[in-house]
Amino acid sequence: MVANGVSDSVNGPQASCSPLSLENINPKVVQAQYAVRGEIVIRAKELEDKLHDGEKLPFDKVLYCNIGNPQQLGQHPVTFYRQVLALCDYPELMDNAQAQNIFPSDVIARAKKYLAAIPGGTGAYSDSRGAMVLRQDIAKGIEERDGYPCDPDNLFLTDGASQGVHSMMRLLLRNEKDCILTPIPQYPLYSATLTLYGGELLPYYLHEETGWSLDINELREQTYKARSEGKSVRGLVVINPGNPTGQILSYENQVDVVKFCKEEGIALLADEVYQANIYRPDKAFTSFKKVLCDLKEKEVTLASMMSISKGFYGECGRRGGYTELVNLDPKVLAEVYKLASINLCSNVNGQICMALVMNPPKEGDPSYKLYAEERNELLASLKRRAVKLHKTLSALQGVTCTEPEGALYAMPHIRLPQGAIEAAKKVGKAPDFFYCMQLLEETGIVTVPGSGFKQEEGTYHFRTTFLIPEPETDEVAERLVKFHNSFLAKYGEPEQ
Ligand SMILES: Cc1ncc(COP(=O)(O)O)c(C=O)c1O
């Protein structure tokens, strides 16, 4: 049959697609889930509207601890970035007689350098990989970080790291037998993109008892099992520092990961967006690019993802990020370039911000003092808040919490009373979802149930950021403790 000139034998039966309904749109869109912005956040917004309309609730403010979005909770942006961005957006400011009094000379010099090399400035499309001058500055930053060269032509600037992950999934996944090894618990961008692009999430469990450690043997076991079932393992996602789990991989563990990828011919997707968020003096971030270079590894393809959203910068709304591709056949690199060009380019303000993050003021530059003060204070404050939240959570009855070594989150393991588990089942919800929803209703605190990240069967967790500003952290901790105790009083002693 030929309908509208389209043959069924090529495209399948002509299904109605107007009006659009859940039954006739792409089922992968319907199946994809993204818990950090799910049902609990929708309810939080409703409660916020009620407060706005003057309704009395048990709290006077909704506190969004569900997502690492620091400026939404009041974090001040880093001055240097905003000054350069302001001048790039409105270059006429530089002609103002007062400009020299408002903007340090290195800010003006940086804006001039970028504007001279980005034809049309921030309002014009750039090269689809990102403006060369910005990729050069990012490459310089990567070289300083790792001590190895970085070719700007291997860098793709993206609208946040999320877009880089989408591109890698598009590139790697060919059919439903293609799998990606993904940590559990995971950041749900991975499960969602795997669903969208038609691949399978091959789980490897992080071990909570040993600080959410990564076991190479488990990667092997899962890979061999998947292969024995006729599946193809195409990539390994490593999130370091971890989200939602907050652990930092040891160098030795990273070496083993690279060796595993080499032995098994698996591409490595290194999500390194929290590289600036390290809170333990005895731990350090090492990029997988450095590990590859240390090992003189030329066969493992690596995609290293970075973002302006996290770190101490927290410029989530600007949407900036990069993917550095290493050990990629130039012909494949050309395909990635083509893929990027289908999006024309990432937004240029985000690109500029990414370059500023990777190439900040240096000691001796007029902006350095303020920049360093702001950076140090933001990181010190995040660390204080991480310590406080960890202490609060660990003291709750039936709760254990791995110390967050990095990133922006705590992921407490909650033992729930049987009464609560049954009550959750009655309303068709996961027990940790049930706990988080009640936490929201009674305290205004928005968290994400562990089930949204996937977790070991029979265990319950939730994830919370430690981004509440310091003056409010004590009050929030008190609300949390009060809620937890009343939850246990209502549903009984927690299961051990
Ligand atoms: C592990 C991880 N990767 C990627 C992202 C995406 O960040 P963005 O797209 O804002 O750069 C996030 C955001 O929370 C994240 O936690």
What does this structure look like?
- The protein has 496 residues and is α/β, with parallel strands linked by helices.
- The chain has two domains: 32-61 and 379-491, Aspartate Aminotransferase, domain 1 (Alpha-Beta Complex), CATH 3.90.1150; 117-358, 3-Layer(aba) Sandwich (Aspartate Aminotransferase, domain 2), CATH 3.40.640.
- The chain is built from 18 helices and 16 strands.
- It has helices spanning 8-11, 27-31, 39-52, 79-89, 99-102, 105-117, 132-146, 161-172, 189-196, 216-228, 251-264, 288-294, 330-342, 348-358, 368-394, 418-426, 431-443, 470-491, and strands spanning 2-3, 6-7, 63-64, 155-158, 178-184, 200-205, 232-239, 267-271, 302-307, 321-326, 399-400, 409-410, 413-414, 445-446, 448-449, 462-465.
- Strand 1 and strand 2 form a beta hairpin.
- The site of pyridoxal-5'-phosphate has 14 residues, from helix 8.
